[in-house]
Amino acid sequence: MDKEVDSPVSDNNAVQAKTDVVLVGAGIMSATLGALLRELQPDWSISVFERLDAAAAESSDPWNNAGTGHSALCELNYTPENSDGSVDIAKAINVNEQFQVSRQFWAHAVEKGILTEPREFINPIPHVSFVHGADNVKYLRARYDALAGHPLFAGMEYTERPEEFARRLPLMAKGRDFSDPVALNWTDGGTDVDFGALTKQLLGHVGASGGLVYFGHEVTDISKQSDGTWDVKVHNRRTGARRKVNAKFVFVGAGGGALHLLQKSGIAEAKGFGGFPVSGAFLRCTNPELIAQHRAKVYGKAAVGAPPMSVPHLDTRVIGGKPGLLFGPYAGWSPKFLKEGRVTDLPGSVKPNNLLSMLGVGVSELGLVKYLVSELTKSEAGRIETLREFVPQALGKDWELITAGQRVQVIRRAKGKGGVLEFGTAVVSAADGSIAGLLGASPGASTAVPAMLDVMQRCFGEQYKAWEPQLKQMVPSLGVKLSDNESLFREVWDWSNRVLQLESADAVATAAAV
């Protein structure tokens, strides 16, 4: 990948280069779109600009946010309880469908040599939902009953038995008072995904196949030209040099930085959008003996008033081939839109066209504000006490606090409400398809492939029709709901399991013993 050294530029208004595609940000979204376009249109020129000095250094980094292959197997925020006690599984099915698309593309990419080492970025890990208390146990049983018969959730298990709990989750069982009822939904078919490693492999392919990837280069402005192209102003943060690149298509995959650039583009579709930043922290286990006692992603229920992204989880992660263990997230707050951002990010995002949206959220999300205040005032002892809901005998000496990435939740204008806070991802694209960007957070990285296919369909309508036969080779279920085609689901599941080397659930256990 090119690490360009700029020569002095005498005229900052001159266009120094032309390209077919500019990708802003070197995270999982840009990497995925770049890899897809290299396969479909190898004759197109692609330039990637990243303000930091490495790929996947913000939200795609495994120690920041992106770590779970979100497939709704264990995340309880995707299966809300209805007033009559039934469980709504619609969102869980949708998220799972999207993750299956990502899995298929990754398997295709391994077969094609785009991705080289699947074990570097994906490993089999059980996904588990955990609750305690009689009312929560009743809810989890209803969740299991609603999901277990569905093709995408086949193999899910349910147990309330303390002895089975202790066998599967020994670290969580030690010192637990089982007079308080517990229940688990357990699925062996879950995965852990290191989106940092995945991003680097995908970007490596983009660079090796002719794309240009520039680190330490910040996009400062985007402006539409009379011929429908875009002039992209770029600042080399190492040398101070500035340049202007002209592109036929721009994708803004800059995480929390996307909102500012979409606003600068002036497209009507970005008007009214705002962003609410939420930071976070995790407790990371430093005791190898404890790490070896737990091999699962265990998700609980979010606290009252907490955003869905704050669902507590005790999470096995495999990073650099080594298993690790973290708990969290603990929510925090900062006006920055990126971990390496600026304190002026939030105030700078307030515009006349989104002021009402921002103010409306301030009134409607008082519960969230109260939750954030309580989190910000939590002491080290308070954080360990929260951890003990999952690990009853947790000691502070075995855990260290690490800062996670920033998430910027979408604020969207709503009729009669000013603005509403949305916990998800939103694709924003111009009517002419010349520019698009992605806003929001979870499930984010896990749905990168369907999100980028959505961008391509919106922005390259005519080409997309011509690409469909090739896309169906990459994603065999493209255009089909696997929920409605169990035989196809089983076929692509078995294929992707084999190619991604997920057939052996003992892989991580073996790694842990090394």
Uncertain stretches of 5 or more adjacent residues? 1-11, 505-514
**End-to-end Cα distance:** 33 Å
Largest sheet: 10 strands, mixed
Number of helices: 16
Portion in helices: 25-40%
SSE-based structural type: alpha+beta
What is the beta-strand fraction? 15-25%
Q: What does the radius of gyration come to?
A: 23 Å
Q: Give the overall shape, derived from the CA principal axes.
A: globular
Mean pLDDT, all residues: 86
Task: Tell how many strands the DSSP assignment holds.
Answer: 20
What does the model show?
This protein is of the alpha+beta class and 514 residues long. Helix content is 33%, strand content 25%. It is built from 16 helices and 20 strands. It has helices at residues 28-40, 90-112, 134-147, 162-168, 170-173, 195-208, 258-265, 288-292, 345-349, 355-364, 366-376, 380-387, 448-459, 461-474, 486-499, 507-513, and strands at residues 17-24, 46-50, 122-124, 127-132, 157-159, 182-187, 191-193, 212-215, 217-224, 230-236, 242-252, 274-285, 297-299, 313-319, 322-332, 399-403, 407-414, 418-422, 425-429, 435-440. Strands 4, 5, 6, 12, 13, 14, 15, 16, 17 and 18 form a 10-stranded mixed beta sheet that branches. Helix 13 runs antiparallel to helix 14. It is globular, with a radius of gyration of 23 Å. The two termini are 33 Å apart. 49% of the residues are buried. Mean pLDDT is 86; it is low at 1-11 and 505-514.
